[in-house]
Amino acid sequence: MARLNTPHPGSHVDDANRPSPPLYGGREKKKLTDPAALKTALIAQAWAHGFGVVGVTRPDSITEAKKHLEAFLADGAHGDMAWMETTAERRGDPRALWGDVRSVIMLGLNYGPDEEDPLAILKRRDRGAISVYARGDDYHELIKSRLKQLARWLIENAGGDVKIFVDTAAVMEKPLAASAGLGWQGKHTNLVSRQFGSWLFLGAIFTTLELPYDAADKDHCGSCRACVDICPTKAFPSPYRLDARRCISYLTIEHKGPIPREFREAIGNRIYGCDDCLAVCPWNKYAKIGRDAKFGAREALRAPKLSELARLDDAQFRTLFAKTAVKRAGRDRFVRNVLIAIGNSGDVTLVPDAKRLLDDASPLVRGAAVWALSRLMGRDEFAALRREDADAGVNEEWDITLS
Ligand code: B12
Ligand code: SF4
Ligand code: SF4
Predict the structure, then answer these.
(1) Quick one: which atom of ligand 2 is closest to the CA of 236?
(2) Which atom, in ligand 1's list, is nearest to the CA of 201?
(3) What whole-number distance in Å separates Cα of residue 95 and Cα of residue 109?
(4) Are the beta carbons of 388 and 395 closer than 8 angstroms?
(5) Which is the catalytic residue, given 80, 161, 167, 292?
């Protein structure tokens, strides 16, 4: 059973010497000029803002990662995430992103699930599985606002200039976090921490200040390969390398077109992201439940009924997923995913919902509805539904499913 999380200093400050956060707005606020004292105070501030681990690395610390990124792109492993290619130069080197950066402060925020087994939902085939990170308020917004407060504190107390990043910028957050000593990149490629297992969000503050750098953590995966072996779509060509085109997280969130046929069955009822490789990591035994209520799961998103999700129109989708990361996918892509899950449910009571979506305005949805019905209905009954569609892709879906 996971324990409630209290902020953890990682390897940077021991508990006995835990500093209190300096006060804001004192009458005479002295600038912190000693880099070590500044870093200690910064760590205390980061804890106060809910971050569990903090570390600092040099801007030129990820030269290997740059090479790996180039190989990843050359293989086409990024699929249709073209933005990875167009930003590759800046992404592979913080100095190319911002020439003035002297230190990269990496922060990790624990979002450990409050359930014993976050994969238990995968057996409830009439329900949709939304990955743990997306069941609460959108972490991008929450973390960004905390990074802004920390950055303001840094400027007020030490001067310098700053830039903050979380997820969407051209920054390689995982290798930077590993260099800053927050953990190591596991065989699933994500950052694993000895304190929080695989459930950490990452954020970055670039600063012109020179702070003491931390040592990188060691790889503690050993002979384990649980994450590689559990992957339902075999998305790891080898340990430590991911082919995003095969990853359910990519397919259900980033990929805009119809989901390639070869992955549909393996997707099961995962309708937004995937947690399998994170959830099996043995380091999670040290994981703690995220203590931040805002990151916690909304009840409505823990095990939503596929039948209800299939009925969402655009306005209802926006209302249900207001302020969550899910809304980024948009209603059509999301309902496409719901239909894949319906096709995998084996639940014939969902046939009317899928049938209604044959008339949806979105060809993406209509095509997925064809596939779902082909899996739930008898062949003759299904063939009787065949109609000419205005969209060539949907017609192809009919042809293939009836062939
Ligand atoms: C693009 C992206 C994705 C893509 C591609 C993922 C990927 N692994 O590249 C997709 C959509 C698939 C994805 C999925 C997920 N993502 Co994502 N994603 C990103 C993003 C925006 C960029 C990652 C990136 O730079 N990839 C490029 C590759 C080349 O870099 P890399 O993954 O670090 O690859 C390293 C290894 O593969 C290794 N390597 C490569 N080749 C070789 C060869 C050898 C021989 C060796 C030894 C090593 C090696 O070196 C590379 C460089 O360090 C980051 C945010 C950011 N700005 O960094 C979030 C981020 C990585 N995602 C995150 C999360 C939470 C997820 C999901 C768990 C969400 C979910 N539940 O569905 C899944 C996990 C899937 C997985 N197993 O990776 C978190 C991870 C937090 C953490 N603790 O690590 C991040 C950091 C966002 C955040 N700010 O918190 N994501
Ligand atoms: S997130 Fe799921 S599909 Fe993607 S690599 Fe991990 S286990 Fe495989
Ligand atoms: S599951 Fe095993 S191999 Fe994968 S990241 Fe965790 S410790 Fe490493």
Answers:
(1) 5
(2) 90
(3) 25
(4) yes
(5) 167
pLDDT for 28: 54
Residues in contact with ligand 3 (CB, 6 Å cut-off):
186-188, 192, 221, 224-227, 280-283
Rounded Cα distance between 19 and 190, Å, is: 30
pLDDT tier for residue 287 given thresholds of 50, 70 and 90 = confident
Quote the tokens at residue 149.
Answer: 């407060």
When the candidates are 1.10.3470, 1.25.10, 3.30.9, 1.10.357, the CATH number that belongs to 305-403 is 1.25.10
Q: pLDDT-based confidence at 305, cuts 50/70/90?
A: very high
Q: In DSSP terms, which residues pair with 305 in a beta bridge?
A: 127
Strand ranges inside 153-275, DSSP E? 162-165, 184-185, 191-192, 200-207, 270-272
Is residue 156 within 8 A of residue 44, CB to CB? The reply is no
Ligand 1 atom with the shortest distance to the CA of 190? 84
Record the tokens describing residue 17, joined without a space: 């010497």
Conformation bin of residue 374: beta by default, left when phi > 0, alpha when psi is -120 to 50 = alpha
What CATH number has the domain spanning 3-116+135-222+287-295? 3.40.109
> Ligand 2 mean position to 228 CA, how many Å?
8
User: Do the bridges between strand 288-289 and strand 3-4 make them parallel or antiparallel, or are there none, so unpaired?
Assistant: parallel
**332 noted as active-site residue:** no
Task: Report the amino acid identity of residue 79.
Answer: G
Model confidence at 315, in pLDDT bands (50, 70, 90)? very high
For residue range 159-180, list pLDDT tens digits in order. Answer: 999 999 999 899 999 999 999 9
Question: What is the enclosing helix (H) or strand (E) of 44?
Answer: helix 35-48
